[in-house]
Amino acid sequence: MNPFTLTVEAFVTMLIPSSISSLKPLMTTNYEVVSIAELSEQIQAYSQERFTGWLDLKLENIQDQQWRLYFCLGSLIWGTSTVHPIRRWYRQLSRHCPRVVAGKESTPRHWPDYDVLADWVKQGKFQPEQLQAVVEDQIMEILFDIIQWGEQLRYRSGGERLSGGELLYRRCLGENPKDSKIVMIPAVQAWRYALKLWEAWQRAGLEDVSPNLAPVLLKPEKLREQTSLIVYRNLSTLADGNQTFRDLSVKMNRNLLALIQPILPCVRQGLIGLRKVEDFSYSLKRTTSTTDKPRESTTAVNPEQPVNPKHQASGPLVACIDDSRIDSLAMHKILTEAGYRCINIYDPVQALPILLEKKPDLIFLDLVMPVANGYEICSQIRRISVLKDTPVIILTSNDGIVDRVRAKMVGSSGFLAKPINAEKMLNMLRVHLQKSIQSSTPIPSMKDKSEDPLSTQSHQSQLIDKSFPQPL
Length: 472
Known about the structure:
Sig_transdc_resp-reg_PatA; 3 domains; 472 residues; PatA-like_N; 13 strands; Rossmann fold; alpha/beta; phosphoprotein
């Protein structure tokens, strides 16, 4: 069974340089990987013989661990993996070219692929060093994972070999691709660097800790007793079970090893657990059954009257103002899968103009952001007539009475503690949207009732049916 879903496979394919993905293998030879040392010899041989093609790696008895390394004239040019391909690409873009994922409605469908980045380099819109860094980090992550899994399988039980891996490499006998857009990384040099990273990982006692795992709090009370308040708050924010160590490394702009080492004692004591997480959704939408879809209003629409774009989708429009792109993407996924429309705003300076343009039905507002914090933005929102009644929910990890009081003073409608819990978030969303609709519905006069005693009740029922998606 192919471990990729159809949408993810399409996403992974689009990331591969077109000049390579179009090549057809003329011969395939299978190898069995006995050790990482033998794999090192194979990569050195590919470099010396200026091999063009790709190398497929698969671990025995583990279906969800597969990798592909692409070579051109003996150099590495790309790599793919069945583990978190969308998260991985998002990390590379966030780290090396954050502007391309900073759009207020950015989703994986809007992100550039390899060929687009290469075209931007040709057009002078993108620095060659940025593309080089994207390719290098993509390949290094995959090489590290191959080494870690290979070593774990061989020495997981007191040095006794448990299982090997199957190495498939496909040599293309056609002409080498003549494409100046391809970034070429010396294969032997990259492999040796990945081995050094693995050696440092071992020295830190992290042999059994994958950087693709996400930390999650298991015993928050005991953790609070054993750490300072600042450390506890930081860990509560980071260890939400939704962000991998690699995601957090990019988010915090910290070295991966330096990030994990302080957390390791808490992991060994059972205060923090490590869990597998799914990849980001490519479409950010789920397939719903007829019983799962939000109910739509039966109100007739005048075909000659232009439809307000805001109401073309099934659910209300929700704005998320948060400078963390990983947090924003997670919230986008929660909201869109629940039937709501969502816009992400990463730059707090641009928040007000976007809110005035979009006029969302509800706003989630992060408290701690650069330049302008959530209190300041909320206060500004309340001074704008068209937004003064829009529900504003403050998001923060500082779940204290002082923060709640201050948030209330600047006009916030609610307070939601991080890490974000999808169920609590959606429940709060429904409650405040319903309050907003009820407060904005005018009380009819006696004259209105005498003309049509059911009009107001019918109209309000239609509004509620249309505005609230059914619970998942």
